[in-house]
Design a protein that fits this description.
477 residues, mainly alpha, Sodium/glucose cotransporter, two-stranded antiparallel ribbon, globular, Na/Glc_symporter_sf, membrane, transmembrane transporter activity, Sodium:Solute_Symporter
Length: 477
């Protein structure tokens, strides 16, 4: 086990060194926020996929596969489907708007389109929600350290928070894009090597296929709490995620978005079964784990040869770090751009903005550690973020991009209705579905209905069709 820990420490130091070296190229806030709008297809693909294969799609999805079986495939598959929509529909359109108006955050877009009230409301909601997804990454790292060296969850979360904050604060998107290439290679190689060894240790494919601890364990649509229901929670979130949209802002042209994000979507779809099968293999070998999210680190430490396990753990560790820096990207740019520059110091220089951004990275990292210490697990923390993001952002962003007739009041109605329904659902029903309708589904439906009702009422009264914002610009370059 100490061998695994030494490998992870060495790997972490190497990533910090690489980040520090690349950060020397970060000269302006544009470099930090949108990588100078110069990312090509390869870098966009690697930074998108590295961010998307994080704690949820490794430790979390493996835990779901361990607990519920093959239906857990929808956790990552839903992200792939959402990414397809981003690649060929939303991404190119919003990139053009961002480039035309020098937008750096999703908050910038929302103010351009709807006004400052919508920007402020969404920025606040997403800051709270993003802390939960950061906490999910930290919890995943703590599970790894716990299995390897018996490190308590509290200490593991603190160590992970320090590492991730230092690594990200050095250079923002530009640094992340290059470091993500290395992380992605480690992930792909690590999982590719670990799978056949884990399958062999589980008795081979025939033994795994015959393993049926529950009647629905091999049902691809529904099993336990997993299944197609994830599509409503995760699909919209991966279309409008602020962290992913800001990476799209960094693309040099529309072709880059279609290729980079499109191949990211394809890779997610192909990868979707990997963590689920690993979780099922872990259950064959270790059927009595006290926490299902320990399945992946336990399998890699105890269920495969040491060298293979070390490479696999490096892959998982890469996944958590790359996803965490994507979340810190959301949190820091939101605080520095959407609040500090917008309200506190509109005339802030590049140097001031970079200082504030790096300082807020420390604040965000500390907040993530605090949530991680009290959250139940990776999936529970991530579910809060994805739900908030989907029900609050999906309708306003789509409507604002493709209609000049939407108003600030329409967007506010959608945001408030979606959040209110989800909050009430969780408070009164403990988040349990009603006749197959889940809280994210209900919130998304409420947001659409509220948007349409307020929009139609406003048009009937002859209100200003674009009060509080400016019309979208989606013409092609």
């Amino acid at each position: 086990m100490h061998t695994h820990l030494i490998w992870l420490i060495g790997y972490s130091i190497a990533q910090l060194a690489l980040g520090a070296w690349i950060s020397r190229r970060v000269k302006t806030s544009s470099d930090f926020f949108v990588a100078g709008r110069a990312l090509g297809p390869g870098l966009l693909f690697s930074t998108m996929l590295a961010a998307n294969i994080g704690a949820g799609s490794t430790v979390g999805a493996t835990g779901l596969g361990y607990r519920d079986g093959f239906s857990a495939i929808w956790w990552v598959l839903s992200a792939g489907i959402g990414s397809l929509l981003l690649a060929f529909w939303i991404g190119p359109a919003i990139r053009r708007v961002a480039a035309e108006h020098d937008l750096r955050t999703v908050g910038d877009y929302l103010e351009l389109r709807y006004g400052v009230t919508v920007r402020t409301l969404i920025s606040g909601l997403l800051w709270v929600g993003s802390v939960f997804i950061l906490a999910g990454q930290l919890i995943a790292v703590s599970w790894i350290l716990n299995v390897i060296a018996g490190v308590p969850k509290t200490l593991g979360c603190i160590l992970a928070g320090v590492l991730i904050t230092v690594y990200f604060a050095s250079g923002g998107l530009l640094t992340s894009a290059y470091v993500n290439v290395v992380q992605l290679i480690v992930k792909l190689v690590g999982f590719a090597i670990a799978i056949p060894f884990a399958l062999s240790a589980s008795g081979g494919w025939d033994a795994l296929r015959a393993f049926t601890p529950t009647e629905t364990y091999w049902n691809p649509w529904q099993g336990g709490e997993s299944g197609l229901v994830y599509l409503a929670m995760l699909g919209p979130a991966f279309v409008v995620s602020p962290g992913l949209l800001q990476k799209v802002y960094g693309a040099r042209d529309d072709r880059t978005v279609r290729i980079g994000v499109g191949f990211n979507a394809l890779a997610l779809i192909l990868y979707a079964a990997v963590p689920v099968l690993l979780g099922m293999m872990a259950r064959v070998q270790f059927p009595d784990l006290p926490q299902s999210e320990l399945a992946l680190p336990t399998l890699l430490v105890q269920g495969v040869p040491a060298a293979v396990g070390a490479l696999g753990l490096a892959a998982v560790f890469s996944a958590e770090l790359s996803a965490a820096d994507a979340v810190l990207f959301i949190l820091t740019t939101s605080l520095s751009q959407d609040f500090y520059k917008r309200f506190r110091n509109p005339g802030a220089s590049d140097a001031q903005l970079l200082r504030v951004t790096r300082f807020t990275a420390v604040i965000a990292g500390a907040a993530g550690v605090g949530i991680a210490l009290v959250a139940a697990g990776v999936v529970s923390a991530l579910s809060i973020f994805y739900t908030i993001m989907g029900v609050s952002l999906f309708v306003p962003i789509l409507a604002g991009l493709y209609s000049t007739r939407t108003r600030s009041a329409d967007a506010l109605a959608a945001i408030i209705a979606g959040i209110a329904v989800v909050g009430g659902w969780r408070l009164l029903l403990d988040g349990k579905p009603i006749n197959g309708i889940t809280a994210p589904m209900g919130g998304l439906i409420a947001a659409i209905v509220a948007f349409l009702v307020v929009h139609l009422v406003g048009r009937a009264r002859g209100g200003d069709i674009n009060s509080g914002g400016r019309p979208p610009h989606t013409e092609r370059n």
